[in-house]
């Protein structure tokens, strides 16, 4: 036998028990789950097993079945429920045969380890006499009846009077043995089951047992107990008695009831959570009202409220409160966090705070008088409602005077409700944001359509305006390398800041318009329009209307009112291109408009003030035109305030290579070409040309060349430098050539003498040795 078994047995080792146990005893000990913790050798060999086969195995391995057909439940189930058995059992032996045994099972407690075990003692059958012997055996009876921890009573089978009751019975029912012997359970108001038919059956048949699963007994104290009653007929000294075994299941039923109610409550809570979760997305006030109402009902709490933090979490204010009593509650009141730091700190730290006595708890004590006492609130359960980035607020459950404490289930439910509130708040925020977005989108659409309407109107009123406004100056467009053009730009910069009239003088294509835009774009008027009038391009009869506008019907063809360029340029700059072409009769009108800064529309009697800066440009020699009476002197003087002369391209050949590169890049991009190289020769050729059409001509030439070039090298087809007269090639000599020519000239003059006062070195102000080196380097030789 194992050491553990020995300990268990010694724990059970009352003197009586030892006497039962001898080498022939068929017995075993089962733990409450039915596992063998001890099995005697005779029982093992009777069933054909070895101890190790059964030890720690479940009794169900032996397939125990009740033999008694009146027994409603099987052997092991009955033992588990009633902790008791006295009757036959059939076991399946190891060889597959059945073995019927008389069994007596009772619950025992080990004094050693305080564990409970079922002690099962078996007798061989058929030996009815032995059965009697067993119960006749005084010691065995004592163990089975007197010392049993289960309440048991013996009745006379004839009169149903109590013959004996054990200690456990006395303790349970409350009567002592003396009070009950000779009485019936009915007399003592314990129960009246002996009126029922099963008792007759017990009388008539041998070894009959009966179970009452839903019995009720009343204790001496009148307290009612739910019990399972197990009855069996036993024979003592040849006389039949009725044994009653009482199994108290009151606690079990109460526990089952509690379990049922807990599960009912939990279902209710789940239903409530599902219902509330379904509300997320509805109007927030409605959601809050429903949440507080349903949460209060489900938690059986008198008051539930939702509080919201301000943006700095300095206070919370009540957003919604449910009150089962319908009193005026603290809707819309505020609690400042610095007034109640203990409350708020605990809430932020623990996220949930249950207070079973608000008047005593240090976290709520200091506001109990104001908030809890007047309303009879005894306990609270507060949960922090989390927001997306920071806490949104607090959910409060409040109970009036009640003994109920907040349970774990309550806390779980409250936390779930707080999560639903958080979801509802976030969804509401999203909805508001979406509405705002839709609104601003709608606003944008309406603004847009208003804008396009205005734009259309404006376009219709004056189709020039946009075109002119698009004339935006871009410094990157203007390249140069010459000193003379740099000088021009310096003048532009100086004059731009002023309001002075600028007169741009230069041949066609020299960049007058570009410069006019530059003046405007770096002037304080840059955000106002630059309006261009090409005096040469407008028919003579329309020029006045172009400049000053006209009223509808003022002349044939004036079908609408029209603004003139002066009005359009108001606040900005008016660029009068090709001013030399302005008809003579228009010149005094223009002069007046410029001088007076006012204009009069054709067909109108009113004059209109305008604030305009004038830039004029011409490729004509205006002085000559004045002399020849083609241009009015007074207008010339009025325009010639700040003349800027733009040199022709041939006078600034240093600009040519840079301009070529600039235009090559521009047109390569435009025509998707990959021109990268320009031969020095091409450059030289282009520099030696006299460019009557100036930069425009160069630009057009490069454009054509880029279009025609197929590889990385720019080829200028059919370009011939102009006739000798137009060439200024001689001016473009390399430095070496110039030096060579000059040294040669001086050497010739000095008759190739280098040293001395008459020598070339003296004339050239050089050291004779340096001159010699230079002569060598430049390959100058004395002619033979
Ligand atoms: N410095 C420059 N850098 C780059 N491109 C230039 C430069 N100067 C002029 N251009 C270009 O040369 C062309 C002619 O310039 P613009 O129209 O300004 O000359 P213009 O003197 O006003 O001519 P016109 O008297 O015929 O009206 C334009 O395409 C202009 O962009």
Tell me about this structure.
The protein is α+β, with helices and mostly antiparallel strands and 784 residues long. The chain has six domains: 1-149, Beta-Lactamase (2-Layer Sandwich); 150-248, PAS domain (Beta-Lactamase, 2-Layer Sandwich); 280-431, GAF domain (Beta-Lactamase); 467-647, Rossmann fold, CATH 3.40.50; 650-722, Helicase, Ruva Protein, domain 3 (Orthogonal Bundle), CATH 1.10.8; 735-777. Helices cover 41% and strands 21% of the residues. It contains 29 helices and 28 strands. Strands 2-1-6-5-4-3 form a six-stranded antiparallel sheet. Strands 14-13-12-17-16-15 form a six-stranded antiparallel sheet, with helices on both faces. A hairpin with a 5-residue loop joins strand 4 and strand 5 (98-109). It is elongated. The chain starts with a helix and ends in a 7-residue tail after the last helix. The model is unreliable at 1-5, 127-136, 459-476 and 721-732 (pLDDT under 50). The site of adenosine-5'-triphosphate (ATP) has 19 residues, from helix 18, helix 24 and helix 26.
Low-confidence stretches: 1-5, 127-136, 459-476, 721-732
Q: What is the percent of helical residues?
A: 40-55%
CATH top level of the largest domain? Alpha Beta
Oligomeric grouping of the chains: single chain
Which radius of gyration do the C-alpha atoms yield?
A: 60 Å
Keywords: Activator, ATP-binding, Coiled coil, DNA-binding, Nucleotide-binding, Transcription, Transcription regulation
GO molecular function, one term: DNA binding
InterPro entries: AAA+_ATPase, AAA_lid_NorR, GAF, GAF-like_dom_sf, Homeodomain-like_sf, P-loop_NTPase, PAS, PAS-like_dom_sf
Pfam families: AAA_lid_14, GAF, PAS_9, Sigma54_activat
């Amino acid at each position: 036998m194992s050491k553990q078994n020995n300990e268990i047995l010694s724990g059970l080792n009352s003197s009586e028990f030892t006497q039962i146990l001898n080498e022939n005893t068929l017995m075993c000990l089962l733990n409450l789950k039915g596992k063998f913790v001890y099995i005697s050798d005779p029982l093992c060999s009777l069933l054909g097993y070895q101890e190790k086969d059964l030890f720690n195995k479940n009794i169900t391995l032996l397939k125990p079945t009740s033999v008694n057909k009146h027994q409603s439940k099987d052997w092991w189930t009955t033992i588990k429920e009633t902790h008791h058995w006295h009757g036959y059992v059939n076991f399946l032996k190891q060889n597959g045969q059945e073995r019927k045994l008389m069994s007596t099972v009772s619950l025992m407690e080990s004094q050693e380890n305080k564990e409970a075990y079922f002690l099962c003692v078996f007798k061989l059958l058929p030996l009815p006499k032995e059965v009697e012997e067993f119960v006749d055996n005084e010691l065995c009876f004592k163990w089975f009846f007197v010392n049993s921890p289960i309440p048991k009573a013996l009745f006379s089978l004839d009169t149903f009077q109590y013959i004996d009751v054990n200690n456990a019975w006395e303790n349970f029912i409350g009567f002592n043995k003396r009070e009950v012997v000779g009485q019936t359970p009915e007399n003592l108001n314990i129960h009246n089951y002996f009126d029922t038919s099963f008792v007759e059956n017990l009388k008539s048949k041998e070894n009959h047992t009966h179970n009452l699963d839903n019995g009720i007994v009343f204790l001496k104290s009148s307290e009612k107990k739910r019990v399972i009653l197990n009855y069996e007929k036993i024979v003592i000294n040849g006389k039949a008695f009725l044994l009653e075994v009482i199994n108290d299941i009151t606690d079990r039923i109460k526990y089952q009831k509690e379990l049922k109610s807990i599960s009912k409550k939990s279902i209710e809570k789940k239903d409530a959570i599902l219902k509330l979760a379904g509300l997320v997305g509805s109007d927030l006030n409605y959601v809050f009202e429903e949440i507080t109402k349903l949460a209060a009902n489900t938690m059986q709490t008198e008051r539930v409220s939702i509080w919201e933090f301000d943006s700095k979490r300095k206070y919370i204010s009540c957003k919604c409160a449910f009150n089962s009593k319908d009193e005026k509650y603290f809707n819309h009141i505020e609690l400042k966090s610095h007034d109640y730091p203990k409350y708020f700190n605990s809430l932020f730290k623990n996220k949930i705070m249950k207070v079973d006595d608000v008047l005593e708890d240090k976290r709520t004590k200091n506001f109990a008088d104001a908030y809890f006492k007047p309303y009879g609130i005894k306990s609270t359960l507060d949960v922090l409602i989390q927001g997306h980035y920071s806490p949104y607020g607090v959910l409060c459950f409040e109970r009036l005077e009640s003994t109920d404490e907040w349970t774990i289930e309550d806390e779980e439910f409250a936390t779930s409700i707080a999560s639903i509130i958080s979801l509802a708040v976030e969804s509401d925020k999203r909805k508001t944001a979406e509405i705002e977005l839709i609104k601003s989108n709608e606003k944008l659409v309406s603004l847009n359509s208003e804008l396009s309407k205005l734009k259309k109107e404006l376009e219709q009123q004056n189709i020039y305006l946009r075109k002119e406004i698009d004339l935006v100056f871009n410094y990157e467009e203007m390249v140069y390398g010459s000193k003379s053009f740099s000088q021009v730009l310096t003048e532009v910069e100086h004059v731009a800041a002023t309001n002075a009239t600028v007169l741009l003088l230069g041949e066609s294509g020299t960049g007058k318009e570009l410069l006019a835009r530059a003046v405007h774009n770096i002037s304080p008027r840059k955000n106002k329009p630059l309006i261009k009038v090409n005096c040469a391009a407008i028919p003579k009869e329309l020029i006045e209307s172009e400049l000053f506008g006209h009223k509808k019907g003022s002349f044939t063809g004036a079908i609408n009112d029209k603004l003139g360029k002066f009005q359009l340029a108001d606040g900005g700059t008016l660029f009068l291109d090709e001013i030399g072409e302005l008809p003579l009769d228009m010149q005094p009108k223009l002069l007046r408009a410029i001088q007076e800064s006012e204009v009069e529309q054709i067909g109108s009697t009113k004059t209109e003030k305008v604030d305009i800066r004038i830039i004029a440009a011409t490729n004509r020699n205006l002085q000559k035109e004045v002399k020849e009476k083609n241009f009015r002197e007074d207008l010339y003087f009025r325009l010639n305030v700040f003349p800027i002369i733009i040199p022709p391209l041939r006078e600034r050949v240093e600009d040519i290579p840079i301009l070529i590169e600039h235009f090559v890049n521009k047109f390569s991009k435009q025509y998707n070409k990959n021109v990268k190289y320009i031969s020095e020769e091409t450059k030289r050729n282009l520099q030696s040309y006299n460019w009557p059409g100036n930069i425009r001509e160069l630009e057009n030439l490069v454009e054509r060349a880029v279009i025609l070039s197929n590889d990385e090298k720019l080829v200028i087809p059919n370009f011939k430098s102009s006739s000798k007269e137009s060439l200024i090639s001689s001016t473009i000599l390399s430095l070496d050539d110039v030096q060579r020519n000059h040294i040669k000239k001086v050497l010739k003059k000095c008759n190739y003498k280098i040293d001395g006062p008459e020598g070339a070195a003296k004339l050239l102000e050089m050291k004779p040795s340096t001159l010699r080196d230079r002569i060598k380097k430049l390959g100058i030789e004395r002619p033979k």
